[in-house]
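Target protein
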Amino acid sequence: MSEISTKPYLLRAIYEWCTDSGYTPYLAVKVDAATTVPMEYVKKGEIVLNISFGATSGLKMDNDSIRFHARFGGVSREIFIPVNNVMAIYANENGQGMAFEPQLGQQSAPAPEPEEAPAAPVLAAVPPAASEAKTEAPDTPGDDTDPPKKGGRPTLTRIK
């Protein structure tokens, strides 16, 4: 019997924590042929999506995929994301959440592994915003002493 991944359960738990705490949950997703997202919003093969109750319609977080409808430029679009493509889920307001290594091209029920299989991916928590290093993009003006600006597009710092 194959081992069940903890990733979809952790995604649902962080989503619930965000909504219960009054935060806006965001997903960072690696885009490939298996994802259905508006390609005009994809940057460097990735997209960040607001998955709050007010931004989505019919949100369903299954063990193998995340599905919902959302408006982009006033047009309702159907979104489909394989759980394996999720890189992070976090609260937009404070950056707290969890990051994952995307497992592109893998099915939810993996084939038998060879004897020398690579180590399982390791989950890492996204540090709280107060203790994070610089979160601005390198081309953004400002320094580490400036408070974060409200209203702009959120950034995600990947820690390896």
